[in-house]
Amino acid sequence: MPEETGIHELLTLKTIAETLNSPNELKPMLDTVMGKLLDLTGNTAGWIFLSEENMEYECAANRGLPLALQRDNKQPMQWLQSIGVEAVPFRNRTSIEPFIRAYQGNASVYFNDPDGNSLEFMCHVEVPEHLKHISENITLTEWEKLLHLK
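Request: output the structure for the sequence above.
Response:
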């Protein structure tokens, strides 16, 4: 059985490489890659963001996103910024990057609204069994690395 799993993984990675190297339109190509990556990892949700030099992000592909992240064409942070709500670091953090609470199964970003109130933008995160023991808050970047370590 492990040999069959290994062959499946290699075939999936081959398909992803072929897809990325083909002359396709970018967004449909990334959607195909997202589907293959979710199949390979066994995850139920994921997204690919593209970033420009000015640090504007665009969601180029996604599958199974929580409802909170689907608002305004999957641009919740841009939507919040458009109404005057800017992300701020949480407690002693210096970064505004979203962070994951694996022990609670959620991700958060903090904002101050135009009146100076602290707001939390939170969504559910599916936590694989092998990561449920993590008790500290970790950045989204760190979380994504842990998901790939399996």
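Residues 2-20 form the longest helix (19 residues).
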